[in-house]
Write the structure tokens for this entry.
Amino acid sequence: METYKLTAFDPKGEKLLDESFQAENDDHAKSIGEQLLAEKKVADITHRCVSPRGKLILFHR
């Protein structure tokens, strides 16, 4: 398991979400990230999810 980082920002650039979570691989992390964004109702605002190696898994602007 690896630790992924998920963040979401308001239009002014302030963080609305800043969470870490564990996933088996990038595909699993993408699924978990999408679920967390939907639960927190921030899927339609600027967000990103990155792997421990710095790979961008999810991005929305």
The CA atoms of residues 2 and 51 lie 8 Å apart.
